[in-house]
Structure formats: structure tokens, C-alpha cells
Fold these 3 entries.
Entry 1:
Amino acid sequence: MTEDTTPRIEVTIAAPVDAVWDALRDKEKIRHWHGWDFEGLAEEIDLIYFQHFTADPQARTLGIQGGDLIELEPDGEHTKVRLTRAARGGDPEWDAYYEDVTEGWITFLHQLKYFLERRPGAVRRTLFFSGMAGGAGPVVEELGLAELTGGPGAPFTCRLAGQDVEGQVWFRSDHQLGVTVDAWGEGLLVVAHVPPSDAKPQGAAMAVLSTYGLDDAAYGDLERRWTAWWTPRYAAEASHAP
């Protein structure tokens, strides 16, 4: 018997199924949980969710670009969101990024949960950083978050890239940690660290900072502080979105 190794990602959201479905079909709402701010975000959303898709509003299923399938299942007053990755082998160039896309969906679904549970209707403003991880330790260790051992909801305080913050653990996965950050307008930080492998000899590091209600001065200070912190550690491909 062949073992089914197709990645499946599941998140339970404290929102009714109609609200979750709407957040998957409204472009303005999608842009406040999918990915992060960059010049081509609107085009990416259109390509993934609205150009190459199959939707069944009755069954609450959405097949999206690349063959991934999102299914919604009512669970009392909550909704289970399940994403099943498309099988490998359809496109060699796409397969080269298979693990990256899977990790991306983990981030996005937890950002969807955050949007619906904590910041519905709020305007998100993000910073994004990425790079190769060969020259530094895991992001959680470098940030001083490695000692967070509690599950979702566990409180924490930390000096985060030069700023004293507090918040709660939001989620954990094999390679990612998400925490809320009160100082960012009850924002969300998601960090990822993939160790070196044959596919990624230098590994990979990523951080997404979702902020709410910061004025330009506070947002600019956050951007400068994180750029100064990130660049010497993961400088190979470091970038951010204004």
C-alpha cells in the first residue's frame, strides 16, 4: 500500500462558516490576511483565487491555482479550514517550490484565523523579511523566543529586535512560530526557519510583521529597527515591503 504523503493543513477558526467563506471570496478582505504588502499583492490575489479556481458555495470548497483545495466544515460556532496540497509531479518548475508553498499556506491560514478572530475589518500594514539562514541560528533563538514553550494563548514578554513587547503565542508548526504583539496595535508576528538541506543548502529564514493603527513615525521606526536587526543575520536575500 502506498502511503499518502500529501500535505494537509487544518486550522479551526472561531467564526461561522459564512464569515470564513466570505473572507475567501472578497478581494478586499483577502488582502488583509493573504501574504504581506508588496506592489503585486492585488495581482497575486486575483491569480490565485479568481483566475484559476473552482468554487462550490454550497459545499464550501474552493479549488485554487496549482490544484490546492480549501474545504470549510462547520463545527458548532467555529469553522474547520482544511487545505490539501496538490500532488507533486504536474510541473517540475512548480515542484521545486513545493515545500515553500506548503510553508506559505501554513502562514496564510493562521493569518486568516487572526484576521477573523482578532482584527475583522481592521486595516493591516505589514513588513516582510526573508533570507538564507546559513550564517545565523534559528530566528526564534536569535529573537529570544526559543524559551516560549506554552501553547496557543500562553503569555510572553520579550525584548524583540530592540523593543520591549508582550503578547501571546498564536500558533506553532514544525518550522514556524506565530505570536501576537500588543505594541503593534495588537499585531501578529510570524517567523519561520528551515534548516539547511539538499534543496536549500543555506536553509531559509522569514518574518512577517502584521501591524494595525501605527502612525507613520511608529511604523518607520519599526521598519528601521527590524532592518538593522535582520540584515547582519539573514542578509543574503533580506527584503521588506513598505
Entry 2:
Amino acid sequence: RPYANYCRSLDPPCLPGDVRHWSQIAAVPTDAFKHFGLRLNTRPGDAGDFAAVFRTSGTTGERYAPRGEHGFPSLRLYDASILRAWQDLALPDLPIRFLTPAPDDAPDSSLSHMMGVLDRSCNTTDSDAFLVRPDGSVALAPLGSLDSPILLAGTALAFLHLLNSDGLPSLPDGSQLLETGGYKGLTIELDKTAFYEKLSRASKVGVTDIHNEYSMTELSSQFYCRGLEAPHRGPHWTRVRVTDALSGEPAAAGGSGFLEIFDLANL
């Protein structure tokens, strides 16, 4: 009902019978996820019996505002979308080590949940692949004993901390990196080119073998790019457009505006 009321309030209204193309679907502002008790779902009248509720991390802009919440009645579709996108977008078929907390240590983190899904799919050993301990410290010793290539995945902030402390070791030939962006509250951000050059020098992984993952708690799908020049690509059930902030129409080439992401996995 809240979404229906929102659609009717638009000028012109967005009514189900009028929608003929995905671009006509009314996009929901991310602020809609910050109203506690109003978790968006597709079961009208349901008070919210969710299998999981993920919360935004609380960046600088959210420090004094409610953290956004995304409730999932079931995780089956979400988990399937993670694995299918990984397969369809030809992401590395390598064992993965994670510079993130384990899912049990961060149950409200969609990123940790995603890494847990990849852990179960990509890793065949019983060794602990999550290098961030519950107290926030990082266990780097397992990286020093590797003799075959891996994918090392983590947030940009985690990689930056390791770079600043000379803690990022060189990795075996054929290894790759996946950084998920986000400097979360830092006042200084590295230029992407400089950041990747630092990562490459420390890890001995070529810049073209460094991937970026873009997503957010409010989404159920992820977008990926490799190296510095390629654009991000999402799975085939997503669409993206940039709209002018005033008119709501598609922004002019080279212009700025709101990023609207249509994600069918967001049931």
C-alpha cells in the first residue's frame, strides 16, 4: 500500500495498467528503506516475517539518521542471484579469501552474507576463509602459506588499512583481487588509479586483474567491472538509467542526475 500511494502521488501517476516499459516503473528513493516498520515487501498486509534483515553500514551521511533496512521473506532468490551473476559475468573461478567478517559475526551485513554464499560455492576446503576476526583484527598468516592462486575479496577500506600498515602480502601468480568500494567515513579517498597501482605493487596482482563490485543494501544484485577502463556490468535481469533531478527524464549525455537501478531480484 505505501508504494501504491507513492505511485499515485507522482505527476503523472504511475499506475500498473499504464506501464509498458521497465523505464516507466516508479523507482523508490533509498530513503524508503529507512522507515522502520515500513519494510518494503511484495506481500500486502504482511507485518514482516523475514528470514533476514540487512542494514546499511551507516556512512558519514547517515550517522544521525536511521540505518536503511532491507527485509527478505526468503533468501533463496537472493542467493541464487549472487551465484548466477558470478557465473554469467565470468568472474574468477578461484578459491576465495575474504577481508570481511564471517556472516555469523555480522548477521545484518548483506556484504558478509554475499561472501558467505560465495564461500560455500567457491571454496572446497574446511579452512576458515574469513580473515577478519570478531574483534576487527585481521589474520594474515593464512595468506603467507598459499602456493596456488586465490581471489582476495574485501572492502576498499580493508585494503587501504593493509596498504597503510604494509600488511598486504604478495599473492601467488594467477591471483586476483576484488574490492567492493566504500571508504565509509574517511575524509580522504584515493583516486582509483592510484589505489589500484598501490594494490598491484603490494600484492603482485596486475591492475587488469583487480575487480570492483558495486552494490548496496537496498539491492539484491551486484555490478562488476575489471581493471580501470571497463564499465560495470550487471546480470541480465537488471537495468540502469540516469535521470535528471528536476525533470525526471533521462539525463543528457555527460550530465549528472539520479541513478535508478531496476533489479528484478528485489522481489
Entry 3:
Amino acid sequence: RTLELGMRRQNEILKRLGVDTGPISFGGGAGGSLGDQTTPRATVSLLAAMSKHADFRAFKNALPILGIDGTLRRAVSETSTALGHVFAKTGTMGYDNLLDGTTLLRAKALGGYMVTASGRELTFAVFVNNFVMRDGWTATKVGETLGRICEVIHDGF
């Protein structure tokens, strides 16, 4: 009935899934509140729990695929070895700094599932936080860097 009650209910659900909610803070329902914080470990814990859920196939199939669609479409080249092997969701939050025209990238995150070159299935989350974008850096370039990290993990495992 209220945001507060909804967040408390969400806490109960996360705990029931086995997610440690200690490092998680939700200040709003849309992800843009300064109170919205989580860690890569908590994200992986939730994703691991989802992989055991009865609706996992539909959940995974709804995720963008690295190099194929969504904001991940251009995160790697068309010849990337990781192309089509990473199923993940991005999240981006930034603020314009009117003082000097830069942007503070408060968060750029990527979390999901990967099948590595050796066939190993991984659950992962990578976050970039509080990065002042200067010298040609953009949210897109940070996203490409996250794509490159996926390539390194894909090829190395």
C-alpha cells in the first residue's frame, strides 16, 4: 500500500531467497534515489537465487545479450569471442556537473550470466562507481570497458 511497506516486503522476499540484505539499501522504487545502494556480491547472490527459480528460463531469456541487443549491442565488436555468451542487464546513473561540464557517473553496472569459452557457467556483477568522466570518457565508453571485462573473463575461464 505504501513505498515503505513495499520495500519491507521486498526485504522479506530477498531474505527468503537467501540474499544478505545487509549491504542493500533501497530509498525508492525506481533506482534513482540516493538511498539506492547495493554491492556486486549482493547482486550475484540475487542472480544465483534467480537461477534456481522456476521461472529462470523466462528471466534469463528476457536479459539483453552481449553484442546482440539492448545497450549491450555495441559493448563489444562483431568479432568478439564473448558475443552471444553473456546475458546481463546494465544500469547507469549519472549527474551533470554544471561547474565544469563533466558528468559524474555515479554508477554503471553490469550483472548477469555468462557461458565461458570452456563452457563454464558464471554468475557475475561488475560495478563502476563515482567516476568523473573527463578526457573523452562517456557512459558508452565505460559500457564498452565492461564489455571488454566480459571478454577477458569469457576467454580466461
